[in-house]
Specification:
The complex is a heterodimer of chains A (382) and B (207). Helices cover 25% and strands 26% of the residues of chain A. With 382 residues, chain A is of the alpha+beta class. In chain A, the strands form four sheets. A seven-stranded antiparallel β-sheet of chain A has the order 2-11-10-5-4-3-6. In chain A, a hairpin with a 7-residue loop joins β4 and β5. The radius of gyration of chain A is 22 Å and the shape is globular. The two termini of chain A are 29 Å apart. Chain B has 207 residues and is of the alpha/beta class. In chain B, 13% of the residues lie in helices and 28% in strands. Chain B contains two helices and 22 strands. In chain B, the strands form five sheets. Chain B has an eight-stranded mixed β-sheet with strand order 4-6-9-12-15-18-21-22, covered by helices on one side. Chain B starts with a strand and ends with a strand. The chains are: A alpha+beta (382), B alpha/beta (207). At the A-B interface, β6, β12 and α8 of A face β22 of B.
Chain lengths: 382, 207
Amino acid sequence: MRRSSLDYRAYKSDAVMRREMEIIFRNKWIFAGLACTLKKRNAFFTRVIGGVFIVVTTPDGTTIKAFENACAHRQMPIQTESFGNRGLVCPYHAWSYACEDGRLKGLSNPHLYEMRVHEKDAIGLREFAVQVVGELVFVNLANEPIPFESQFSNEFVEKIRDASSYFDKTYAYSKFRAGYNWKLNFENVMDYNHVPFIHSNSFKKLLKEDPNAQVRYEHPVDVEWDKSNRPPSDVTLSELSFTAVGEINLKPRWYSDLIRRYGTSDAYYNWFIFPNVNFCSVAGEHFLIQQYMPVTPDILEYHLWVMPAERLSLRTNFTALLRGLMISEKQIIDEDSVFMEQLQASLNPTSKKALHGAYEHMVYRFGDWYSTHVLNDEEAGQ
Amino acid sequence: MKLLVIGSGVPKIEALRVARGLGRYTDIVDLEIYAADGFNFSLPDLTPYSEEGMELFLAMDDRGINMSRTQLFSALKAKGTKMARLVAADVYLPANVTVGENTLIAEGVSIDHGVTIGYNSYIDRGVILPRDTKIGNCVFIGRDASIGSQSVIGDFSSIGPGLELANGTTLGKYCELRQKRTYGGQIPEKTFYLDLFDEPVRIISPL
């Protein structure tokens, strides 16, 4: 058994959260949404990442661009909806921007501003780096983003690219808040041993009764617990995104023959995407993407995308299925939230660090990386 | 006249009750249908029940959200089946109101001039439909819901009991309103206001 590197401050401190916003959410590659949303000119979706409002859009249905969703004039959000199909025109005073590069294109009542040509030429939206992996769109808010491959191994990228190629192009999405730290959620989804206890009437029914059935990690480095006496600073960023496959026992469902299945029907696939995404598939029949964005140390915003595997016939209507999947996934999340909120509320300066065992080796590694890169800072210690 | 009511659950019970209250059917047959998975219903052999001039009413749960109801309706229409309209005896229908086939309007529903109600819809007890309201096909409106005048309810949409829609609300297709609040404006298609979620669930197709 090993003590976690994370003490209560990692879950409760405003100073630590400011630090993680800077070190993680405004510096690393963060999942932002799905490329299939952006197949027509001016289609867009909006997000808030690291406290920054962003809009992800396309000038041509192919190229994907990300900009700060803030008009240069008064910082008003240019797109106010979560999804849509609309040019970059601020609703406040109608300043408009080019979707290709974010430069200011025009403004209404220009005589009121007495804007010089050189001033106009210098005005534009802040653009962010974008990386698209299959259907998954990642954004990096840093001025000089780290190479994508330093955060995700090529092997892992190919796996999520392949899995996302099985998505149906119609998906369900919603978001909601929960009262606990976002890291508790990431630790919870990596901890498969909670399922029989917290999800005894829901998710557990999918699992095989066979006591030998277990989760199989597909990890690029040696993660044997007994061989892992590495110093915390030795944990690399790329090893924190990984694949795990569990065995499940699922009867064919009414839509099993209507989709192009990913993988095999007896597997529950998890792709943990650093820092805050659990991308998974139940029997390759449907996929879900759960993302936990920090709002305060005690509150996270939970984003949930659900889609079936690609339908074989375009005539198949999956509206009822998507609605049902969203409800069932939310019910499972709510089962977790009850416990996570109790855990969050109980953490205090006298709380001991968590004690981890072998099956939690990735939770432990996440804590090591976080401790080295976020907590190891004087400000965070104050 | 003979009426064959096929379906399942509460909608079938309600349809039988409304039909019996009308007094125009001499023979009402209750035929339950099942689906092992709760989704894929199939039509039973109706030959033993058929007779000249018979009407049929299809009453199934899950309203417009479940496509089975629509698929069975289409299959029955393809066979040339004469579908009933069940409007409770105490409901007054002004002359310029239209009601589609296989639609049920329960007791106490208030319907004003210029209202149109599509086929295969279900308007539960006490619902208020003011002037010029347009209700699409395969729509469910729960008990005592109040729809604002000149509102438009898209096909396959479902409105929970007791909910209020402001005047001029436009509800897209395949929407579901369950959260206790007043709705208004334009609600995009495939938007689900569910109790489990703070914000609506949206179904997004390539925009």
